[in-house]
Records
---
Amino acid sequence: MEVATGVRKLGSRYTNFYLIEEQGKLTLLDAGLPGYWKQLVAELEHMGRHLQDVDAILITHHHPDHVGVAERVRLAASAGVHAHVADAPFISGERRSRPPNFLGQLWRPFVFRYLLHSVIAGAARHAPVASLKTFADGEVLDVPGRPRVIHVPGHTTGQCALLLESRRVLFSADALVTYDLLSGKPGPAVAPDFVNVDCQQALESLSAIEHIDASIMLPGHGDPWRAEVREAVRLARQRASLTRAAFRSPMPFS
């Protein structure tokens, strides 16, 4: 599905990844889950493109639902894979991160469905990326779309958003999503505490994208956001504040 000029959204109701097209070449932004491979191939065929047209793969952060088919595409297309230096060791398999405590959240129906979908789609089948290039905050990458890197740590140490300045498209990764990852309710939100390495830093990182002039924000999870990024940040902060206040309250949820 084309969601902005030269940008196509792929994935599922749970997880997004994207194709950026420029002058016949493609950048794959994030790589979904391993089970999304057939969808990627079908989308390329629909576009009249081939795997060999993928020139680069950009990984916003190292979680399995964003790295999924990266190595498979790299081998098939001889494409360069790029990620922030802080997350690179996890993507390459040099280091392993501790899995989030999903089991403690399985009483939540949406979390249970999300986890079940992820397992069926191969989240446990981690394929390390054998050859990886690194980027840093502020770089404009010489790949199709020429996105600018915006470091937004907290969810992971090396998580980055990416901005197509000429198209006014912001890929916010999991720094700012558009549904609550605990309840599935729509609306701007930060990732829940149990999947972040530093929850306070995740909130503070919103300031890095708050004033970006974009006509559309494309998150790692949820629907495109077509209003001001500033408003999405405000609503996410508000939701985080209310959630934390509820957990501090001695009263049961109504």
Note: The CA atoms of residues 110 and 183 lie 6 Å apart.
---
Amino acid sequence: MGELARCLGSQEGLCILDLGSTSPANIRYFTERGHKSYSEDVLLSSIDPTLVLRDERGNPTLEQGNPVLDEKRFLSENLVYPSSIFDVVFCWNLADYMDESLVKPVIARLWSVMKPGAMLLAFFQTRDAGPDAPCYRYHILDNDTLEMQHIVANAEMGRAQSPTGREAMAGKANFRLQRVFNNRHIENLFRDFASIKFFLARDNVREVLVLR
């Protein structure tokens, strides 16, 4: 984060994609430095129950016991931007908590919407974190300080909304760690990118800075 912050402070007019729910702190941090900010909660969109593919009887299609998601439809509705538009992408911990079938397609889409030489920051849990490691939304307070907001299920949210609405989805969303990537897996995930750097952070997290 510190290395990326130096880039954000030394340039102006960058186009930034923040993959999470709208964060006033992040928007303020970017705009104060003269950058244009987009945010998109791709993780929340990925748990839309209508993404589950079903057979002719209406039963969920399963693969190794897990429901199969409609990857094409997901990408037609999310991360829809012109190619080579973003200078910086904050991927945060998306890959750890998203359904495995969508992770590689999402990273490929991010590659396509990033400019050559653009940077992507991603966080990955280590094995020491444990399967119940909480999912966080990260808010940038300054160049080297992040506020971590624990994303938890809220039974009160969405009860008065349409059951198909995004508010209802948020009310039922209690994101769980789906897998733990080792360094080799991370390198394979970003194999189409130009370079990758690993940084060991606190709280059983590895920071990964990737160059398009």
Note: Helices lie at 2-10, 24-32, 42-45, 71-77, 94-97, 100-113, 166-172, 183-189.
---
Amino acid sequence: MANTQDTAKIDSKLPAIILAGSPPDPAIEAAYSVPNRAAVPIAGKMMLEYIVDALRGASGISEIRLIGDLQCPGITETVTPPGTLIENLIAGMRASCPGGKDSHVLVATSDIPMLTSEAVDDFLRRCGDFSADFYYPVIAKSDAETQFPGMRRTYARLAEGTFTGGNIVVMRAGFVLENAETIRSVFGARKSVMRLAGLIGLPILFRAIMAQYISPRALDLKAIEQTVGRLLHATVKALPTSYAGIGADADNVEQIEAFRRILVEKVS
């Protein structure tokens, strides 16, 4: 796939953390007999290893810390996960940026085996001067369906197109450490329409519903950036990327097996 961004090496390097503290759901545990979803074997490697390899090969990444109870080659440091996803994120930030709240960190989940070094570097270039607190990749539905036919994703219709979200982000350490309670509240409300309405306000929620069911022009990326930024007390940037592997997460046995077939074909 052609890269539409500058292919020069990235001068400044960011530390990265991989969140790998989640136990497998019953179906995955039954199919693969693993204590952690990141340990699922895919084409001769742990799923986690594909993410580590992608980060190690990226020119914009320095150290890699694993927040999880696994051993994996290529990790700078392993941090025992303290508990919830947000607590694990905070622990990773503290380990990666002791005393440096203005530093940015790349955060990745441990279930995106199709991630590549090129995708990581492309995303980091799109972050520009790292002046915002939170950078989030969005992938066009057309790219996701072309690169991974049949992959089930949740999409949002917006004025600029139909998008799904990615599973790597870049965050300023201070943003996470200073707004931990707000982040917990937002994360806890993500599946409740009424709780979200209380947090973001009815007008933007109404626009979101209008965009999904009536006209996508009712909501655009800029409005989402502003709303999320107001909610999190942060500057937020949504960055379109054509690298769909960033959002190709292995949530269930069906998706794991689909990625296994792709990766076996690559190495054969």
Note: The chain has one domain: 14-267.
---
Amino acid sequence: MLRFELSYRPPYAWNAVLGFLEHRRIDGVEQVIGNAYRRVLMFDTPAGVRTGWMQVANQSERNAVEIAMSASLAAAVPVVLDAVRRVFDLNCRPDIVDPVLGPLAADLPGLRVPGAVDGFEIAVRAIIGQQISVPHARKILMKLCDAFGGPLDPFDAALAGEGLRVAFPAASSFAGAGAGRLREIGGLTQARAATLHALAVEVASERLRLAPLEPLQPTLNGLLAIKGIGDWTAQYVAMRALSWPDAFPAGDLILRRQLGVDTAKQASALAAQWAPWRAYATVHLWRHHHRKQEARHA
């Protein structure tokens, strides 16, 4: 097993970030146990495709996260560490972000925008999550991952323990499967399966790159050109896959409810006060909503 440590600037709202990931976890691909986030990874390296697993835990006394990963990922260490930085938004400067958010962040300073191991994965999650509940989306994602993902080597699976078995599929797997097969496995509508397949073809061909530092507007235009992808999905991908700190899915129903408005235009106008950190405001608004929901059902 390999071990590394990456630092961050405090404060870090670790439990809230873990809660965000836990709420959206795909069984078999990822899990949250105690203080740690664990998941299966698959990367294409010069030595070939490598599949393994990692665990990330907070070491608050050192203002760092500790990463443990399987030896099978030795050829992909730099890529894995970059992924950890994105998923846990370790480059965030809460001393700059939180003062702009003001009262919105006052009760929980240091909240991050959880990022992505892979931009394609976030786009798939966003498409499947359109207009359905999170639990329903998780079930569909699990079926697709079990059918098309990269299985964890039995040796690594034994070391990882119960609950981790497969990596999220590569875009090429969805592209090769075709829309009909995606629909059959995932129980998707014909339109949703067609959108997933079109996305996979664009990403697999590298005509569309969903990663930080890619040109923002051309990337958003590429997403919006795919039938079935609208502004909400594009902004969600920008927030979590492109690491754009000012992304804001103004059409989101929860955001509009939290802001007390009826339209996306009104939501955008109110959110302007938090620019250029509207992605962080989004995560806080979602958090406030879920806290209200929990209090209501307590």
Note: The CA atoms of residues 73 and 80 lie 8 Å apart.
